Amino acid sequence: MTREEAPALKDVISGVAPISIAPYKMAPVELQELKKQIEELLKKEFIRSSTSPWGAPVLFVKKKDGSMRLCVDYRQLNRVTVKNKYQLPRIDDLLDQLKGATIFSNIDLRSGCWQLRIAEKDIPKTAFRTRYGHYECLVMPFGLTNVAPAFMALMNRTFHEYLDQFVIIFIHDILVYSRSMEEHEQHLRIVLQILKEKELYAKLSKCEFWISQEGFLGHVISVDGVIPDPAKVKAIMEWRVPKNATEVRSFLGLAGYYRRFVEGFSIIAGPLTKLLRKGVAF
Question: Which candidate, 182, 129, 154, places its Cα nearest to that of 21?
């Protein structure tokens, strides 16, 4: 875990009293899993017992592999938190740096936000209530409104010297790219040494090294250039006909992500965009 403290919460809006919400009802199997995961988090010193006047409820979200991820419902806290305005990078700008690269390595930081400590003054705000007690987080938990910009800022500070030279970073994903095998060996040594010094740890099962083609941020990158991920293109092609403005907005959000590959995208999407105007009927 890195020694840096993350300004994840910044300040709560002035005059707002602590918010505390009763725990959500859980099924017996969820309660069993809850007790198990709380014990693991306590053992890792990611959380501690709390007497904070703040308290958010928890729930489980099922992951792709069938396991359950414990999530704290921070929606009420997020509503009264001053937002971090740190800008995430434009995907287009990141991908433009890859011209001429022939070899890649992708490093996925393990539960990235959990590797950042929370400032002592902010810890009570992260408190959550459960059937088995009241706890607060010592590391940055998932679900806080400022998690992504805070972690992005840390990563940019950490790798500032090498950004757009041979390193691309998007939150917890690090892409190392090089023009030759010799360069790549040197670049990887630099990146891994920095991670070691900063005590930032990768999840090996999600990392890929020394590859000539790599999936990254919804794209496939290789020596031949950058193309949209075929699976995403298939999803767009098979999207059902939108029936309301919300569904139109969702479709345009996904399709628009690849607008750089579609000449005249705004003109083509024009009829759909008009459907988002107030008062326009389907």
Answer: 129
